[in-house]
């Protein structure tokens, strides 16, 4: 019986980790979809109330849901007329069943409000994540921007109907 109980406990732990990994991957995607599609409710839903979003220069550090609101409505969305985030290389590490860290790389292409050409940003997101009452959210995201450059001659435009 003890072996059977241990096997069931191990299986439960593996399933819990798989579900947690899936939830954390969804947070990464909801960040991109929420930001790019200007869906503030989706974007806010990934953050704990006591979160920190440290975007670094030139944008700043924002704390709590009020800080997220300030970053989105006063800093970022007014600057970006259009954006498209592509995240990759997600690595998730669990310290226990309710705490994890993750790191992923991101390329963001878009158009700044005051420019007609495309700008590309390359960055790394390092996250501290927590599960509270069975729900995973971001506690802290630290952004390291590697480059933030215009791509002269590139104009973002919809394809022509054909």
TrEMBL record:
Superkingdom of the source species: Bacteria
Name under which the protein is recorded: Nuclear transport factor 2 family protein
InterPro entries: NTF2-like_dom_sf (IPR032710), SnoaL-like (IPR037401)
Residues annotated as domain SnoaL-like: 17-142
